[in-house]
Amino acid sequence: MTSVATLRAESTARHPLPRRFVMCRPDYFEVTYCINPWMDPAAPVDRARALLQWETLRATYEEYGHKVDVVPGVPGLPDMVFAANGGLVVGDRAMSARFTHPERAAEGPAYHNWFAQHGLAGLVDAKEINEGEGDFLLVGDRLLAGMGFRSSLAAHQEVAQHFSRPVMSLELVDPRFYHLDTVLLPLDDNTIAYFPPAFSAASQAVLSELFPDAIVATDADAAVLGLNGVSDGLNVFLSDKATALSEALRARGYNPVGIDMSELLKAGGSVKCCTLEIHE
Ligand code: ARG
Questions:
Q1: ipTM value of the model?
Q2: Which residues contact 171 (CB under 8 A, 6 or more apart)?
Q3: Which residue among 15, 273, 274, 279 is the active-site one?
Q4: Going by C-beta distance under 8 Å and a sequence separation of 6 or more, which residues neighbour residue 40?
Q5: How far apart are the first and last CA of the chain?
Q6: Is pTM, for the whole model, over 0.90?
Q7: Mean pLDDT of 223-241
Q8: CB 3.0-4.6 Å disulfide test: which of 39, 44, 55, 183 passes with 195?
Q9: Residue 98 · residue 125 · CB < 8 Å
Q10: Which residues lie closer than 8 Å to 5 by C-beta, 6 or more apart?
Q11: What is the pLDDT of residues 122-137, one digit of tens each?
Q12: Which of 38, 54, 85 to mutate to test the pocket of ligand 1 (most atoms within 8 A of CB)?
């Protein structure tokens, strides 16, 4: 006989789905300019260590059954490792990024060319300032979109049209959290983890209404970019420093997988920033 406890465990069981990711090896990673509060060009960066951390992340994805394609880095584009910013790919539509800062401008065409070479359907260049999955996150059928520091409201409209999907605009207010993916982590089609103080009061109200079951992250989790993670529906890949968030995830039936991303954090990025998802 099946016990009530077993039935309950089965009904809440989480289902991982194999994902397709795009990553860019940090062969040219360094911090030579400052476009967010995490970056200090005077502080040393250990590229060999960054490479090891990145290789560990990539190997971990593969170990969990996910496919990883690697985009070659470009000399002189030290932030290209943050593949999430390269664009947005959902179903039969794709859009390559248009960056806010001139230091990263050439990454848009670099990712565009790679998308084109890999046959991604419905590919266009963003006309408006659009930093890809840094600011556009798919939750179920809806896109959540960040604005305030990088991607613009006009970009949200452009994305809604090109991808024919509802886009919910959210305003970011804390410069440490300049991209949506630094403070909001989609866990599955209906659930997110997020850090409310990073959003305007109006956007906080929208999020609490849309996601009453959200996991609310602590200041300490946010301060190590713990929310900059990737979920496959069960396993949640995130910084190993996000200890309270990992516990909260476990309590809700997810499996947190901690990765040391300390070297990449010096440029203001962690797990999600290094990962562009091809949403099939
Ligand atoms: N240094 C990069 C920038 O400021 C970091 C980008 C992080 N990427 C992300 N998806 N949040 O643009």
A1: 0.97
A2: 146, 147, 148, 199, 200, 202, 203
A3: 273
A4: 31, 34, 266
A5: 39
A6: yes
A7: 98
A8: 183
A9: yes
A10: none
A11: 999 999 999 999 999 9
A12: 85
